[in-house]
Automatic annotation (TrEMBL):
Keywords: Signal. The keyword Signal applies. Residues 104-126 are annotated as: Disordered. Residues 1-27 form the signal peptide. It comes from the Bacteria. This is Uncharacterized protein. It comes from Stackebrandtia endophytica. The keyword Signal applies.
């Protein structure tokens, strides 16, 4: 474990990189690039494990006679240079569009109701239109979920008198994480993780969700944020968008444009005009953000608060990365058998 009063040098869980480098801690620079690389690689490996698990679970379902599957919701990739960036952190920081300008010109914030469900303007691939799974009866859908993972978390879909199979769980720092114990998903997960699923979920929480807690806690309480938000708000007001306290207000304002006009998607009258206004607002938001250095400043503040947490949990972070790599290797090996 690192602290600022010790000499730090050597291997950590088999890896040759250390977050604080190999030097007197008082003189050492905190290695952002090392942490970012570990978190980015681990996050990518986690996603690959999830994708392979779902793919193999679907194959298991097909072997069991289920040929109609629900369309999965794909979450956009994180776009900020925040270490271990996740959608939670991006939402908290409001830093997504500062670093993803291509979507601004095409869809602004992407706040139309249809877009929030996964659709993007200009695309013919609407993932939730003509989904054959939705054409199944409630009983057929429930039967599918029971065979998939026991139905846990989908109590709302259970026909009267039926209940899901309770999952197993692991608790880390007061947070409880569940995982299925029956169904195709549970079978595949057991083969991939063996007996490490509890460790996997626990270390993932420390390495990733712990960062979100910093964003929710120490980061939001930092008094330096207010000055940046005030400068951004003044810039937005000067450019025709008054009474916006932060970028979240701008997004909500764009969302209300659709709701107030009862516009759902591109097929509705008025969508083109509202989308054009949303894009103008998002472009102004981006320009003001860049002009006052809002997101750059917030990322620096975030890093300052992240440093002690990352040093405190360095062992767990590297253990998470190593375990994730091992689990991914087993998942890929299992996939190769099909």
């Amino acid at each position: 474990m690192l602290n600022r009063t010790m000499l730090v040098c050597g291997l950590v869980i088999g890896l040759t990189v250390s977050l604080a480098g190999c030097a007197d801690a008082e003189a050492a620079d905190y290695d952002r690039e090392a942490l970012s690389a570990v978190l980015a690689d681990g996050k990518q490996a986690e996603q690959q494990v999830k994708d392979i698990t779902e793919r193999l679970a679907r194959s298991c379902m097909e072997d069991a006679g289920y040929s109609i599957h629900p369309v999965p919701l794909k979450i956009p990739e994180a776009a900020t240079p925040v270490p271990g960036a996740s959608d939670d952190i991006e939402i908290v920081m409001g830093a997504r569009f500062m670093f993803q300008t291509d979507t601004i010109d095409d869809s602004g914030y992407g706040e139309s109701p249809r877009e929030s469900m996964g659709y993007r303007p200009g695309s013919d691939d609407d993932p939730f239109m003509n989904d054959p799974f939705n054409e199944l009866s409630d009983e057929e859908q429930w039967d599918y979920w029971v065979a998939y993972d026991g139905g846990d978390g989908r109590e709302y879909a259970a026909p009267d008198g039926l209940e899901p199979t309770p999952p197993d769980s692991v608790t880390v720092n007061g947070r409880t994480f569940t995982f299925p114990v029956v169904g195709c998903y549970a079978d595949v997960q057991q083969r991939i993780h063996r007996d490490s699923i509890g460790d996997y979920l626990g270390l993932s929480h420390i390495a990733r969700e712990g960062l979100a807690y910093i964003a929710f806690g120490e980061f939001h309480d930092d008094p330096r944020l207010e000055a940046g938000l005030e400068a951004w708000s003044d810039c937005m007001s000067d450019n025709g968008y008054p009474e916006l306290g932060d970028p979240g207000d701008a997004r909500m304002s764009a969302s209300r444009l659709y709701r107030d006009a009862d516009v759902f998607g591109p097929e509705d009258p008025g969508f083109t005009e509202i989308k054009a206004e949303e894009i103008r607002m998002a472009r102004t938001d981006y320009s003001c953000n860049h002009e006052v250095g809002l997101d750059q400043g917030r990322v620096e503040i975030f890093w300052e608060h992240l440093e002690p947490y990352a040093i405190q949990h360095e062992t767990e972070i590297f253990a998470w990365k190593e375990l994730t790599d091992d689990v991914l290797a087993r998942a890929q090996e299992l996939l190769g058998e099909y």
